[in-house]
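Lay summary

Proteins are chains of building blocks that fold into shapes. Our project writes down both the chain and a compact code for its shape. Here are two examples, one after the other.
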Amino acid sequence: MTTRQFIESRLLVVFAIFALTAPLLAQVHFEYPAPRYPELRDVETAADLLDIARPIVTRENRAESGFLVGWGIKPGFRVLLAVDSEYDRRVIDALEMAIREAGAKPDVLFLDYHSFHLPIKPAEGAREIDQFEHRVESPKLFVKKYVEAVAQYHVVINGGGGANPPHAGYSWGGIPWKTLDEFISGTADYPAEIVEALDEKVWQTVLSARKVRITDPEGTDISWTVSREEHEEAVRRRGGRDILYRGHIMSHPFLEVKNALDAKGVIAGVANHTGFFPRIEVYIDNNQVTRIEAGGSYGERWKAMLEKYKDIQWPDMPGPGIGWLWEVAIGTNPKSARPANVMIQPSRVISWERARTGVIHWGIGLTGARTTAAGEVSQTEWAKQNNLPTGHFHVHTYFNTFEIETEDGQTIKLIDKGHLTALDDPEIRKIAAKYGDPDEVLREAWIPAIPGINVEGDYERDYAADPGGWVRKEHEEAYGEWLAKHYQ
């Protein structure tokens, strides 16, 4: 055999091996579930949305039900629908039409967005610091003043989340769907029976915990001990709810139970309620921030806030400062998704994604509004009286594994690689079967794409330094045609 024949024979072997293995090489296996996006239908007019709007209007109003929205509107009711000017008018028109169909009389009030919110860039995570530092009048308080000064209503509808101000003589409903895609992605009209069953299942699992450990491939690894008695005390102190909170399950009772202070570890991520930032690491010891690393301007400004207020004692907090971990909240609606147009419109925020099953949003700082005993001054009022801020900062994590050790030594995965395991429970599947194929009814509508975790790429190089840039491209590929048609 000549040298040339030898080389050619070896090349044939190499090519044959490549041909056999190429399909295998192309099938890169990822440990975490592949990206997924909600199927968004075409909408020509507001009337196309009435099938979603009608059940919201008539469904029972349970203010404690978190993201399960119903307004309980009946014939003859006077209704105030108050939204800021950035809400999608197609959604508002459809809801107004459905209210009139129900025999009620709606007034629609549009509040100027810029009167209540600071100028921002699209999906800018540092906006949370702006909101903390620069306090403007709450839209909810403005609406409350308007209602009390102008007219009597049976139902007032305003606000996308958070606590409502004290009110009497009318019910208060939320309206969390600011964008068209949020409204049609399957969350707004998701069966109430399923959401409430999921909430109950998750809450009972949370109550069984004695030790908790949560990890996430972006770097989160944190643990704490807890007891059923501490969770039940937290429920009692937060107004006697059956679950803290529906659609937003609070899996850590810190705020109300002063001795539950042993959380230790790190929380890492690239997103909060208002947008994205370079990957941040927030180190926690005894439930308090000990240091923050990276995070770009969000991280630097957060550290500055910790230093500025380190010696001030707020009511209900176990010590001075604003670095307390108190919110570890689990979403329980499988159809929730990150807004499709969040990267192209400055007013859009990404907070709606936190409602999706298995997503955790971590709240670090000071507690939000809460019920107080007679004669007590709420933390919000105290802060106002002392010209001080109140609030907290967030980190979202998506592919969590939430492990619980029970009192009898069992290990339960409440969340497994971002998947809420209650979705697989036979009782939940039986309920879901009333509404269609349970595999589809309970299927998560949205799973984000993160390089090196569930799609090809390098996490540090392609994502961690500029997650917003990655998400912009991701959304152009996933939603570009639909966005071009529905958002001119």
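And here is the second example, written the same way.
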Amino acid sequence: MIENVSLGNILKLERRRVNLDPDTLYTEIGVRSFGKGIFHKEPRTGLEVGDKDLYQVQEGDFILQITFAWEGAVGLASKQEDGMYCSTRFPTFRVNTAICEPKYLLFYFKTPDGVAQLGNISPGSAGRNRVLSVKRIPEVFVPLPPLDEQRRIIAHIEALAVRIAEARGLRQGAVAEAEALLTATKKALFNDTFFNNFPAFALGNIAEIQSGVTLGRELSGETITLPYLRVANVQDGYFDLAEIKEVSIRTSEFDKWQLEIGDILLTEGGDWDKLGRGAVWQGEISNCIHQNHIFRVRVNPQIFNPYYLMALISSPYGKQYFQNASKQTTNLASINQRQLKAFQVVQPQLEDQYQIVEYLHHIQMRIITLKRLQVETTAELDALLSSVLDRAFKGELWGQ
């Protein structure tokens, strides 16, 4: 028998206010949207928390995020969260376990119907202006079968979730293995024998190296506004062009900074293990320039294949050079133009460079294919879990 039970009969608001001690560390939790659950914030002392009210969390608490409940921001505190803390944005409730299993309730609010009901009691416009009204919780009705049936549904969903996680892991493992193969291949190609068989030159002697435009300059005279590449646009082996910004420069500076097909773009800093990050420009955006935290490396294509040079820079040999030469802080590292110019470039015959590029390109295409399949598989698995949740709370799994 299925009953539609008011959430007011299932949940009881329970807030355990904490008297903050200035020297005590408090680990706060939050709840992500779209059913993604609870996350932990960095611990802070009571002094750092300031005058914000904190409430203690207990295992089994059902938690809503009042500003994004309409996006399915719900969570269930586990043993790990027991004794942590939350702010007023995350009211905590105890579940009436005489009629409802907490996990069953959590799964219900991952369904479209559950999320829609939370949206109905979250008046206002989108974003933080749309706040859930705790007083209106009794207006939400949850379809409750008997407890034994709830437990069977929970077991069914959890078993499926485990299989989905395993499938995701296998796909992710295949991508990781392919990427490791590419790194190992570059290491095998650019070995001691390779370096001993061909001449080597400092990068500054065989390439034109140019920093980009400095942002925020005061300009006079005739100007032109152009798209430019930021550090965020330059990734390891590709360009992320989802967001392109514009900057004004003097019209006379256009030739100085205009990107050309075959230019290598390298970031000057970032995470220490990502030094040497860059890609070869293929003219993806017309009349594009780059900012000053990106180096543009331009070579004569009759002597050097830019893709070969990029492969050398991104190889273990190249990354080791930049890590050794860079200026490093705790989490970040950077290189300057002098260090970049000193990078030693080995010059095999142009035909050999093209063969190396073709071989590495073949492996790279395998990685791209695997990543695309991973995205497609993830979407299919998400849709599968969503479908099972929807069927479960429409009664289609009950009695099976």
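What can we say about the second shape? The domain at 199-347 is CATH 3.90.220.20 (Adenine-n6-DNA-methyltransferase TaqI; Chain A, domain 2).
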